[in-house]
Amino acid sequence: MTKIIDGKLISAKLKEEVKIEVENLREKGISVCLAVVMVGDDTASKVYVRNKKRVCEAVGIVSKEFILNANISQQELIDLIDLLNKDRKVNGILVQLPLPKHLNEKDIISSIVPSKDVDAFHPINVGKIMLGEYDFLPCTPAGIIDLIYETGISIEGKNCVIIGRSNIVGKPMSMLLLQKNGTVTICHSKTQNLKEITSKADILVAAVGCPNFIKDDMIKPGAVVIDVGINRLKDGSLCGDVDFEGAKNVAGYITPVPGGVGPMTIATLMKNTLLAAKLQNHN
Ligand code: GUN
User: Is 106 a catalytic residue?
Assistant: First the structure.
């Protein structure tokens, strides 16, 4: 019988822990603040940003939103980030991705001071993760590690297969699984014999961005299956990268969409913002 990994429940525990610590800081006169910057009006991004604001409010973190016109210049955006970098009341800065094509994502992320980079996307923070000496862990991969932990299954020595090599999920995910002594394979659009590789995975992380891509015959019986995909179908409903109905007859553990990885990403963002405030205030 496949067990459903309840990201809503697990993230609720994490948020409760953050809320208590935020309250403790407030009693010491320190308020915790996250600045979220969004450029343009991408529908999916708007939903994410709204959810971030809602969760900030729930855990007592002050959220400052900057919704900017889609044709803002690179320099104007960097100037805003610079103000936020210098604003002592702002502990964390998040620039919602993707950015419009005329903006250079790499340079914009690099303009965030690493101590406020709660996404852990800045090259310095990425490098620290590679070295295993990080302050912030990237939100989605760290949330996934927590989900796997809750299954009680150890990552050590396991065949871990990630599908997708993005900077946000695939690449940092590989590092975190490696740090837990997993044997890690990253697959991508050019991978040959994908099914052969995925069907040997004890832990399978799907971050493809393609609805129902992973079918039951690609999954090892009993595997832990983590679905990072959030795909909106024509009828408006959400579905993951894993064909849930088929997979749930084969997997040992599986995350649902929605209610799996998504809530963990935001809860980890709250944890990182709290950590940023603690580090900046030497607490
Ligand atoms: N777009 C999709 N996921 C993320 C994320 O985790 N952080 C940011 N900043 N943008 C995203």
Answer: no
